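Still learning folds. Look over my entry:

…
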Amino acid sequence: DLNANGTVTQDVLDIFEDEGFSDRNLVQMTAVGAMAQYDLSIIGAPSSNLEVSAYMMIDALLSIPARSDDSNLTIRAKLSSSECSAGFDTCADRHLTGNPYSGFGTESKLSIIDRHLVEPGDPRYVAGATTLEMKLVAHLPVLLDTSIERGLGYSVRIIRNTDVDPNTVPGDYAGVSAQILLPLMPSGNQIKLYVPQGYSLSMNSSDGPNDVIVAVNKGDINLDGVIGIADQSSLIASYSRPIGSSNYFVMSFDRLAAFDFDGDGDIDCKDHQKLLDEWSAGGSPTAFAECDNDFDADGIPNGDDDCPGTPTGKAVNDVGCPLGDYTLDGVFNMGDIAGFADCQNGPNKLPNPAPQFSIAACQNAFDIDGDKDVDLADYALLLTN
């Protein structure tokens, strides 16, 4: 577990005042926690363009003072080589910043695949605070020049900030807490590190957490060294549809790590096509009708399409429904306006009501300009479409 927590009590605030700083409006407190593993090596033939990626799923538990708009959480996952400063491709940095009130920004593709508020009665509930549980996916691809440098490292960091009014009455306090749980597999592996066939991973630290990483080929879930029929069959059995779809379900860490090629938190037809692109076993893959057919010719395969009868030429979103169709009934009409009102403060704010996977649903339906925010600019585009 990775934790960052702290509390400002009235005693601390009294000292703040005694030191002559009572004219200041706010005290900012910060709690930082991090875990990292460096000094990893990729062993194999020298290559100037070796693609390596890490995959991790993060469970985060965040507690902040109730209605505290000035309290923020940052979760940052990173995979980098020792040549990281030489170029963007040698680093992969995914982060999420925000809080349950102002929303969470996901510009860096740290995908939120589930989140909900912890309610009273749950043992993790904190009285006087808002506690949010989130499940996040980090896909971290990098390009390495192993002919020059083979060093590699990963890190996960959480930073909690909150502003505290020093003029609170005795007994008041502000507390911050964040907790990250990396999934513990039966084998003890918590992070998947994918290296191409013919390469292996060496961990040079004798006292490091060497049991938390396993090196495998992306898509090779049976670990036989090739991408073939058995892997395709496993992907088909794991198929979970796109996030935001009415039939999406959360897949296990092991299956997502193997088959979620684009790191968006689902196993869909895009991932199936990527598996076929990586095919190395010879012969022909078996048919997968869900992804091989598109009856309404809207560019979204049947299996990923929540609106399979979209009229020809109609612009659709990631789940094959017309832009603005929050209710997934095949049309954008007055029935979707309530959904727009819930989403317009930003796709990462908790909508009210808050259906499961509503972050992706908001983006699918209303983020017309692709800026990761739902606002009046999107509404204007909806009206013109």
Residues 169-173 have pLDDT under 50 and may be disordered. The first helix runs from residue 10 to 21. The two ends are 48 Å apart (CA to CA).
